[in-house]
Write a structure and sequence with these properties.
Elements lengths: L2 E9 L12 H11 L3 E8 L10 H9 L2 E10 L2 E9 L3 E8 L9 E9 L2 E9 L4 H15 L7 E6 L11 H7 L18 E6 L4 E6 L3 H6 L5 E7 L1
Parallel strand pairs: 1-2, 7-8
Antiparallel strand pairs: 1-11, 2-4, 3-4, 5-6, 6-7, 8-9, 10-11
Length: 233
C-alpha cells in the first residue's frame, strides 16, 4: 500500500535574517507553517548564551514541538553550526557520517531512521563544502557510507553548495539516487540558484518540489525552505 509524507530541507543561516537580526522564533514560525512530517536543517547554531533561544539545537525542537536528532558540527570563525532533524514521526536511530576533508572546515551528515507507519524511512541531512574538489570527495564518501539499496525508502537532502544541473561534484549522488529538477532557493529575497536539493528513493516514488516563499521565509534566512511532497509505492 502506498504511503505519503512531506519533507523540508532548510539552511537557516544560524537564524540570522536579511535584516541581520538573529531570531529563532521566526524560523520556528516558518517551520510550523510548513507543516512537514520531517525537516532537515543546516547551519543550526549550537552555542549557548543568556537567551532561551541561544542554543538553536535545543530551542527549535522546543519551539516547534517536534522530535529531534542532532548532527555533526561545522566550525567557523564566528561560531559552531550543525545539522538538525525535526520530525513529527518517531526517530528510531541516529548515526553520524564524517565528511570532513583535510585542510577544509569540518563537515558531516546526520543519518536517521524514522518510523513511517509500517516502514522505516532513512533520512540523511548534510551540508557540503565550498570548493569543487571538496564536494566531489564528500559526495563519494557519502554514497560509500550509505551503501544503499535504492529499492528501500531513502531521502538525502541538504545544502550541496552547487547550483549546476549537471554538476560533476554531484554525479555520484545522481548515479544512485537519480536527478530531479530542483527550484532555486538562494538568495531568499530573489532566488536564482538551486543550492538545496532533495533526493528520494525508490525512483518510482512520486515527488513534487516547491519552495516556501512567504514574507517571513524571505527574510528569516538567506535560503528559502525546499519542500517535497512524497508518495512511496
Amino acid at each position: 500500500m502506498s504511503v505519503s509524507f512531506s519533507i523540508v530541507s532548510y539552511n537557516i543561516h544560524g537564524c540570522i535574517g536579511r535584516d541581520r537580526r538573529r531570531d529563532a522564533d521566526r524560523v520556528a514560525e516558518t517551520i510550523r507553517h510548513l507543516g512537514a512530517d520531517v525537516v532537515g536543517l543546516q547551519e543550526v547554531d549550537t552555542h549557548s548564551g543568556p537567551g532561551l533561544d541561544s542554543s538553536q539545537m535545543d530551542y527549535l525542537p522546543h519551539a516547534t514541538g517536534m522530535n529531534a536528532a542532532r548532527g555533526p558540527l561545522l566550525t567557523r570563525h564566528h561560531g559552531h553550526y550543525g545539522n538538525l532533524v525535526l520530525s513529527t514521526l518517531p526517530i528510531l536511530a541516529v548515526r553520524h557520517i564524517d565528511l570532513s576533508v583535510a585542510r577544509h572546515e569540518p563537515r558531516g551528515a546526520l543519518d536517521c531512521d524514522i518510523g513511517l507507519h509500517d516502514r522505516v524511512l532513512r533520512v540523511v541531512v548534510t551540508h557540503f563544502g565550498l570548493r569543487p574538489a571538496e564536494r566531489r570527495a564528500q559526495a563519494l564518501r557519502l554514497m560509500k557510507a550509505l551503501a544503499h539499496d535504492c529499492a528501500k525508502p531513502l531521502v538525502v537532502m541538504g545544502d550541496f553548495n552547487d547550483w549546476r544541473s549537471h554538476a560533476p561534484t554531484l554525479a555520484p549522488l545522481y548515479a544512485t539516487l537519480g536527478q530531479r529538477p530542483s527550484p532555486p532557493t538562494y538568495p531568499a529575497f530573489f532566488p536564482l540558484l538551486p543550492l538545496d536539493r532533495i533526493f528520494v528513493c525508490p525512483p518510482e516514488a512520486q515527488v513534487t518540489l516547491h519552495t516556501e516563499a512567504s514574507p517571513t521565509a524571505r527574510i528569516c534566512s538567506d535560503h528559502l525552505p525546499l519542500h517535497a511532497g512524497v508518495m512511496l509505492p
